[in-house]
Each structure stands twice: as C-alpha cells, then as structure tokens.
Amino acid sequence: MGLFPHLLMLIQTVTLHVSVAGSDANIGTSSQPLRSIEAAKLAARKHHGKKVVVQFESGTYRLDHPVVFSPDDSGDVTYKANPGATVEFLGSKSFVPKWKPYHGKVLQCATPADFDTDQLFINGEKQVWARYPNEDLSVRIFHGYAKDAVSAERAARWPHPAGGYLHVMHASLWGDFHYRILGKDAKNALNLEGGWQNNRQSGLHPEYRFVEGIFEELDAPGEWFHDRQSHTLYCYPRPGVDLKNCVVEGPTLRHLFEFRGARGITMQGFSFEQTTRTFMDNREPLLRSDWTTYRGGALYFTQSKDCQIIDSVLKDLGGNAVFVDGKNENIAILRCLIENIGGNGVAFVGSPKAVRSPLFEYNERQTFASMDKQPGPKTDDYPSHCTVEDCLITRTGTVEKQTAGVQIAISKNITVRHCSIYHVPRAGINIGDGCFGGHLIEGCDVFDTVLETGDHGSFNSWGRDRYWGLADVDMNKGEKPELAALDCVDPIVLRNNRWRCDHGWDVDLDDGASNYVIINNLCLNGGIKNREGFNRKVENNIMVGNSFHPHVWFHNSGDVFRRNIVFTPYQPIEVPNPWGKDVDFNFLHQAKVAVSRAVELGKQSGRDKNSMMGDALFVNPLEGDYRAREGSPAFGIGFKNFAMDSFGVRPKNLKALAQKPRMTNQVAIEASAAKIDWQGAQAEDLVNPSMISAVGLGERLGVLLSKVSTGSKAEAMGLRTLDVLQQVNGIAVRSVKELEGVKLPAKSLTIWRQQHSIHLNVP
Predict the structure, then answer these.
(1) Is 470 helix (H, G, I), strand (E, B) or coil?
(2) Which of 400, 477, 537, 645 gives 560 a disulfide partner, CB atoms 3.0 to 4.6 angstroms apart?
(3) Range name among 158-162, 265-269, 630-634, 660-664 with the lowest pLDDT average
C-alpha cells in the first residue's frame, strides 16, 4: 500500500506530444503528435485535474495571434521542449525574397500583400531601418545622433516622410521621447504626434535625436526600407552577406503568450522571439515617477497565479519581454536568457487603484488633512510574491531608454535573486515607488548601466509616495516621519550584490525613497547615494573608489550608516548636521597609510566618533576580491567579510555566457571646477556629478551660479543662487570659459531653475 500514492501519481500524469511535422487531427501521442500549441492546449483541458506534460520537438512555431491561457487552461500543466530540442515561438511573418538591383548597392524585392513591419530580420539578424544619422555602435547615445535630424534643410530631402519616427532624449537625460511623423508642411516643418513617453515633461534635448523610417536616408550597409503602398522592400546588404535564398522576417505581434487568469502553468526550454515595438503605446503615467508604461509584453500576465517561465530564451523583442500586470501571485522567471529587448526585461506593475491617495505627475501635491491615512494598499490589484532568479538580462532598452532590466512599481514582495544585468541604457534594477515594499534584491551582478541616460544608478529608486511633498507638513523640519511607512509598509532589502555604474551612482536612492536595508554590497565605482527619505540602514558595504553621497536629508530621517568601507571622504549636499540617527564605526580606506581616527569623516557628519582610516588590506582587489585580510584594521570597527565569488547567475550555461564588470582599484577624483565672478555672481563649471544631480540635470548643460550676491548686476537680471545659466543672448554656454567670451550687455538669458527651463528678458 505504501507504493500506491506513487503509482497513482504516475497514472495521473498525461503526456502530450507536439511536432511541426504533426497534425492537429492527431491524438497527441509520440507516434501521432499534434501540430500546434493551440491544439495541445485544447487537448490538455480534457485532462483537468491530472498532471499534464506537453512536449515539443524541435521546430519553429510562427504565431499569427497571441496564445491565451485562461482559467480553463489552469491546473498542473507544463509545456516544455524535449531534452536537446530547439523550439522557437516567433511573432513574425516571413518570406523568401526574389531580389533585383535598385540603385548602387541597394537591392529591391516584392513583398506579400500582408507584410507590414517596422523591424526587419534577414537570416535571423536584425537590420537597421533607414535612419539619419547612420548607426554607429561606438556612439553612446542612440548609437548616433544629430542636432539637425529634423531641420527644415534635412526634411527638404524627404518627399514623403510620413510613417517615419523621431526619437529624442529628455532635456535632462531622464529618459526619451518618441514621435510619429505624419507629414510636413510647405516650409518642410514636420507634423509630429507623440512625446507622451516621459512623465517629466521638461523639454527635449537639443542634440540627442535621430530619425528613422525615411526612404531617402537608406545609404548605409545594413539599412532597409519597406514601401507599404507598392509592397516593395529595399535593402542595402552588409558586407559579406549573400541575400540569395535568405529568409526575411518582419514582426507583427505585440504579445506571444498571454496568461489571463491562468493558474499552475509552466513553460520550459523555449525561445520567444520577434515581437513588434510598442514605444508609441508607452503612455500611462506611473506614480510621480519619471516613467510612463505600456501594459504589455511578449509574455504577459494578469490575474494569474503559480505560473513559471523556466530555462528559456527571450530575445529580439520590440517591447517589454515580460510584463506582470496588476494582481498576480507567485509568477516566476527562472534561469532565462533575456537579450536584445526594446523595452524592459521584466516589469512588475500594479494598478494605481491599489494605491491610497495616488498622485501621478512629479509636481502634484496634496495635504495631510485630505490624504487617506490608512497604511498599506487599498486593493490587492498588484503583483506579489513574484521572483526573477538566475536570469541573464542584457541589452534591454534598445528602443525605449526609460526602462530597466527589472522594473518594479506598485508591487509587493518581489524577489530578484542572482541575476546578471548589464549593458542597459538606464538602471539595471528600478523600483519606481515605495508601494508596497518587501522586495528583496540579493546576489545580483549589475554593471554597464546608465549608458544613455543621466542622473541615475545601477540600482535606482524613488519614494514619491503619498507622504512626499505634502503641502501642509514640513518634512525638512522632521515633522511626521512615520508617514513614510504608509505605502512602503515593509523594508526593501539589497544584500550581497555587486554594482558598478560609470555614469552615475552604484546605488541611487532618490527622492523620498524610504525604509531600505542595504547590507553587504560591493560597489565598484559610483558609491551609494541616499537622497531625502526616512529609515535607511546602510551597513557593511564597500564603496570602491568612491564614497557615501547623502543628499538633501530630512531632519529626523532616522538614517543609519555604519561599518562601511569608503575610499574617499563623504560627498554630501545640504545635509543637516549631525547626520541621521547613527553614522559611526565606518572605515576610510587609504592605501599604505597607518591606522588613525577618521577625523575628516567626523567633521563632515557631526558623528563618526569611532570611525577609523588606514589601509583595509584587501585580499586581491585587482581581481575583485575585496575581503579584508587577517589583521585588517577594518575588523576593528565591526566590518565583516562577505562572499566575493557568488554574484550573478549560477547555472553553468548562463554563467559561461555572462560578462563581468571591469575591476579598478583607484579612487574616483572629482574634477575641480573652474570659477569666475560674472556680473556679481560666482559662476563655476558643472563638473561634479553630485551637483549636476542636485540641480536636476542629467549632464553638464550650463554654468552653475553657486552664489548670486545681493545688489549685483546678476541679481538685477533676475538670476538667483543655484540657477544654471545655459544661454546668453541665444548663445549656449557650457563652461566658464565660454561665459567669459560672451558679449555684453546681456539682453536675454536661458536658465535652468528648479528643474525647469526658464527664459528671462533682461530689463
């Protein structure tokens, strides 16, 4: 009788077989396999209550509509590739072209009547939609940009530009904007629609822009253009590419699989490829973050539970790879390779209806008197207890820059564990708000981030929750700090991760981010930044080549910073002294320096009475081993070693593919700012990344007026302290040297003030 349960389990397991050589008229056995996943799904329904395994043989399954799993498909159902099989699900149409010469090296062919796409793959390799300027992979932003991308002179070359797109970075590099070209007028000014992809509408960048989908710009190897009216495809082949008998593919589907109210479904060992771009549908604002979102992805989950994507590849997708929308529980993305993604790698985004007293645009404010004061969520319409584990996520945000390898917003208890995330335009991991906390980020390796944006970090977060910026509560005076826990009800934990950002901070807790525990993190370049917020505990971390960046703290912040190793003195901006609740027992590493009290740290923080400085005696820093050797004075302040060999993905196949961050053992030295007196104002170069962030810019775009003297000519012009002077009489100034060369008198000024561009006419 003891064996009976096991025998019953075997009896209750049903195996169905699918093959591209099969038929949906078959019964689904190994000798009579089914042909499609739709037929397999219907067959699995007949065995409700049993364990069902649907096995796929090698083959390409090209979908003409998304496969939808509903409550009727729920149970214990696993769809999997046979061992060693390569099974691909594609959202594209294909054909074999018959090429003929067009002009020069450009070839042309006829396309099927139903072929319509804004992406093209030839023999599986993505091509470049005819663009200006031409793609240059060595250029950091957009792989090429031009100030005159949509100038009247350029547009005069385009008889029929409708159908193309303009892509522009945010003025402060906080993301990007996208516009569809509808046509042009008699003066070659383009008629555009779009620009809703960023929730901080503070202007377009004057230079970082390019256009694509313009026939007259088809002038470089790898470029293509499709004329929808004549059904003609034009292609300029790359060197060495033989287009004879090639396969041409064009994505037509946004989503491949949708899990709508599904339970207990696992997909394992598949490759999901080629979906359309969705940047023009990315328009829903999130809670006072910089972001908007499109609720969709190649794999889309809503109202689902206990579903898994395992051992799979998600690549060459035009929008989000995975999107978990609203109420979902126990959704797991495990041991997957996610690469070449137009939007986010994996996104968890709940409904704003789950949030009490939600606000959406950055400048929106409410009062304590009118605010809902009940802690926690209003409904359960948000992702919870979901996991991304052992995933290699790289080259996301190839189209949309306001994206992340993993994006979390209006969610609770999301775990991101042992993921390798790199080569992304913005943050590797982004948490857009405090709603509703409980997240765990551990064992991750995140680097090569913020490659195209600015003022962010490898890890980036906000806490612009209902407590932040109340009109009738002065947080700067330390009033009602307990309000920060109304939405972030459980701590968010970052532990045992390795971070490296060469264009920002390694860990960036921005506006209002509260209730964090940051412990045992190795930060390789950008340090840790804590901007205004409450109850952050930063303990036992190492900040290689950098330090701690406290920015604009509230009184009674309750912040703790202790037992950390920093390489330079702190880099504060507007922090009330003494700092936080407890800043002490830290160690300032100075190579080959005898141990002594860290007096300078104490002067900065008003605390640090027991902090020390000297040589931390690391084991092997050039190889990334920053454990302290036996006898290290860092142990004297309570620092404890943590593992340096377990960051990132663990499966052998992914570990063999995963890159690692470069190692340096040098102190990041801030460039000294040139300063001059200009019309009674102290003007200085914007070279300090912290100050660039403090004034709300993403890059060096002007000259900082660090002090405007009372009664000065500068004050009479309407200038104030901490303005950023960007133009004088219409002439751009980016350095004090350029400012010195400006001809006076000044008749008009363009300044950056309180994160807005302002034009001043000088009286």
Answers:
(1) coil
(2) 537
(3) 660-664
Does residue 473 sit in the same domain as residue 428?
Answer: yes
List strand residue ranges (DSSP E) for 629-722, in order: 675-678, 681-685, 703-708
Nearest to 696 by CA among 723, 658, 667: 723
Tell me the CA distances in angstroms from 344 to 307, 428, 612, 688, one per residue in order: 20, 10, 42, 30
Same domain, residue pair 112 and 52: no
Beta strands at 299-310 and 612-614: parallel, antiparallel or unpaired: unpaired
Burial zone of 20 (CB within 10 Å; 0-12 exposed, 13-18 middle, 19+ buried)? middle
Q: Alpha carbon of 311 to those of 78, 314, 649: distances in Å?
A: 13, 10, 12
Residue 738, pLDDT score: 85
pLDDT at residue 1, rounded to an integer: 45
Q: Which of 311, 312, 315, 310 is nearest to 339 (CA)?
A: 315
Q: For tokens 């300063």, name the residue.
A: 675
pLDDT the model gives residue 540 = 98
- On whether the CB atoms of residues 422 and 451 are closer than 8 A, the answer is no
Report the SS3 class of residue 169: strand
* Domain identity same for 372 and 452: yes
Last residue of a domain, one of 631, 657, 683: 657
User: Quick check: 441 and 435 in contact, CB under 8 A?
Assistant: no
85 located within any domain: no
Number of domains in the chain: 4
Give the helix ranges, DSSP H, for 573-712: 599-605, 652-657, 689-694
Asked if residue 750 and residue 636 are part of one domain, the reply reads no
Q: Is residue 471 part of a domain?
A: yes
Taking residue 717's Cβ as centre, other Cβ atoms within 10 Å add up to 23
Residue closest to 271 by CA, chosen among 369, 340, 325: 340
**Single residue among 251, 279, 308 that ends a domain in this structure:** 251
Mean pLDDT for 466-482 is: 92
Inside any domain, residue 29:
yes
Strand partners, 59: 87
Cβ within 8 Å of residue 522, ≥6 positions away: 497, 498, 499, 541, 542, 544, 624, 626, 644, 647
What does the alpha-carbon distance between residue 745 and residue 713 come to, in Å, rounded to a whole number?
A: 11
653 lies in the same domain as 683: no
Instruction: Domain of residue 120: give its range.
Output: 93-251
Domain presence at residue 716:
yes
Residues 388 and 246 in one domain: no
Sign of the alpha-carbon dihedral angle for 647, 649, 650, 653? negative
The 3-state DSSP composition of the chain as helix, strand, coil percent (nearest 5) reads 10, 35, 55
Q: What CATH number does residue 363 fall under? A: 2.160.20
Looking only at the bridges linking them, the beta strands covering 445-447 and 498-499 are parallel
Please name the residue that has the structure tokens 């190492």. Answer: 542
In the block, residue with structure tokens 């083959």: 59
Task: Clarify whether residues 163 and 312 are in a common domain.
Answer: no
Given a cut of 60, whether residue 9 has pLDDT beyond it is no
Q: Contact at 8 Å (CB) between 603 and 611? A: no
Per-residue pLDDT tens over the stretch 560-599: 999 999 999 999 999 999 999 999 999 999 999 999 999 9
CA gap 254, 670 in Å, rounded = 45
Q: 111-149 b/e with 16+ CB inside 10 Å = b?
A: beeebebbbbbbeeebbbbbbbbbbeeeeebbbbbbeeb
Q: 3-class SS at 177? A: strand
* CATH number for position 722: 2.30.42.10
Q: Under DSSP, is residue 580 helix (H, G, I), strand (E, B) or coil?
A: coil
Q: Are residues 177 and 286 in the same domain?
A: no
User: What pTM value is reported for the model?
Assistant: 0.91
Asked if 322 and 314 touch (Cβ cutoff 8 Å), the reply is: yes
